[in-house]
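Standup notes
- HV: blocked on the assembly model, inputs below
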Amino acid sequence: MTALAVSRPRRSSRGALATRLRIVAGVAVSVIFLFPIYWMILTSFKDQVDIFTTPPKFLFTPTLAAYAEYMQRADIVKRLINTVIVATGAGLLSIVVGTMAGYALARIRLRGAATFGLLILLSRGVPPIALAVPMFLVARKLGVIDKHITLILAYSTFLIPYVMWLMRSFFMALPRELEESAMIDGCSRYGAFFKIIVPISLPGLLSTLIFSMILAWEELLFALVLTSRHASTIPVAIAGIAGDTVNGANWAALTAVGTITVIPVVVFALLVQKWLIKGLAEGATKG
Amino acid sequence: MMTETDKTAARRAPVKNPKRPAPRRGRTTDLMVRWSFMFPAVLLLVTLLAYPIFYTIDISFSRFDIATFGAAEFVGWDNYREVIGDYRFWESLKVTMIYLAFALPLQVVLGFGIAYLINVEWAGRGVIRALFIIPMVVAPVVAGGMWRMILDPLWGIMNYWLGLIGVGPMDWFGDPGLAMASIIIIDTWRWTPFIVLIATAALLALPKDVFEAARIDGANWWSTLWSVAVPLLVPVIAATFVIRWLGAVKMFDIVLAATYGGPGKATNVINLFIYEEAFRSLRFAESAAMAVIVLVLTMVLTGLFLRASRKLEELF
C-alpha cells in the first residue's frame, strides 16, 4: 500500500475506482514496456517472408531458420563463449576485490580510505572513452589486444567501484556486534570476515555478482576497442549486424542474436529479482 | 590479490582489543591486515583507472606519432586549440546536450509516475514490479537494434500503428529531429524501469502518518501530492537525477546501433564522435584532448548538480 493511496478513505467508491484505474494503467504501461522485447523474440521465429509484411504478422508458422542460419554463418557460438568467460571473470574478480574494499570502507578505520572512497565515487563520472583510448594504446604496446584478460581488467574499472559502494552500504547495515564478538572469541579479522560476514551477506553478494556480470555481458565500447577476432563478444556482433548498411536490415539475424543475448540475462535477473530490486534501490539512494 | 605472507601475517595477527593499545609490532601487523582489505582495489584501480587517465592527459599535450603509436614531443595546448576550433566538436556537444535536456527530465518524471501507478496493492503487484526489471537488463546495443526494427519507416510496426490512426508515415531515422526523438525514446524505454525501481522503494519508505494527517485536514489529492509527497521525495528525486546523469553522459551503445550518429551528424553524441576520431581517423591526440575536456565538463556539472540537490533538500 503506497502512502499516497492512504490519503484517500480506502473503502469509498471513488477510492476504489481510482485504485482500479491505477491497476489498469499500470498493466497497460507494463505491456507497452515489454512489447518491444516480445516483438523481437517473435520476429526471431519468423521466416523471411513473414518479417517484411504489411500489416505486421502476429500469427505465422514459427521456424528456427534464423537461429540455424546465423549460428553457422557467423562466429556467434565463439563470441557467446567469449562473453561468458569475460563476464564471469570480470564479475568474480570485481566481487572479491570490491567486497573486501567495501568492507574496509564500512568497518575498518584507515587513514586516507575515505578520500580513496570519494575518488572512486567520482570515477563514476569518467567517460569510458577517456579510458578506452589509453587502454587501447597501452594494450597494443604490451601485445595484449584481443585477449580475454584485457577485457576482464578493463571491465573491473567500472565493476569494482560498483561492487564497492553497493557492498559498503550493505555492510554498514549489519550490526557491528557480529564481528566484534567473533574477534573477541579469537577470530582474526580475516576469520571474522570470511566466516561470519561473507556467509551472512551471501544473498546480497550473489545478486551483486549477477548484476556485475550482466553489466559486463552487455558492455560494448571496451569490447569494440580492445578485441578484434579472438576474444570478441556478442554485443560487438550485434553492433555489426545493426550497422550493416551494405546488406540492408538483416532482421532475422538481429532478432535471433538479440534474443540469445537477452534470454539468459532475463532469466538470471528474474531469479534474483527480489535482491536485485533491494540492492539497486539501496545502492542508488545511499551510494 | 593476497600474497602468502599477507595470509600468514593475518593468521598470526593478535586478537584486536579496542580498549588496550596493542604492542608496537602487533600494531604494524594489524595495520597491514587492515590495509590488505583495501589494497587489491587500490592497486587495480590505480593501474587501470588512474594511470589511463593520466596517460590520456599526457597524450592530449603531445603530438601523436603514428609510427611508434605513442606520444611524441610535448606540444602544449595545440591539440586543445585545434579541438576548440573544430565546429564538429561543438556540434557534437550540442547534440549531447539536447539529448540530455530531453531524456533526463522525461525519464525521472515518467519513472516516478509509473512507480506511483504500479504501487497499488493488488495480487499482480509483485509480478508487474519484477517484469519492469526486464527492459533494464536488455543490452543497450540490443535495445538500439531492436528499436531500429520497430521504428523502420517502411516495415516497422510503429509506423503501421501510427498509420491506423492516420499519422505518418514518419521517417524516424531520416529526419534529424525525429532521429533525435528516436534516440530519446529508446533511451527512455531502456532506463525508465531503473528509475521506477528506485522510485518504488522511495514511495514505500514514505511515512504514512503524514498522509493520514493531510487527509484528516481535508487536503485533496493534488495538494497532498504537491505539498506533502513531492517535498518528502525531493532528496530521492535529486539523487536519481544525478545517478541517471552519470549514466546518460556515457551514451554510446544505443546511438551506435540505432542511428550511428545520423542522419548527417544529428545524433552524433560526443562519445561516438570521440570514438570515431580516435579509432577511425586515428587522431589520438585530438581525441585525448576532447576526452579530457568532456571529463572536466562532466566533473564540473556533476559537482554543480550535487550542490543543487543539496540546496533543494534544504529548501524543502
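- HV (later): unblocked. Chain A touches chain B through 112 residues (CB under 8 Å). The domain at 74-286 of chain A is CATH 1.10.3720.10 (MetI-like fold).
- Next: hand off to the docking folks.
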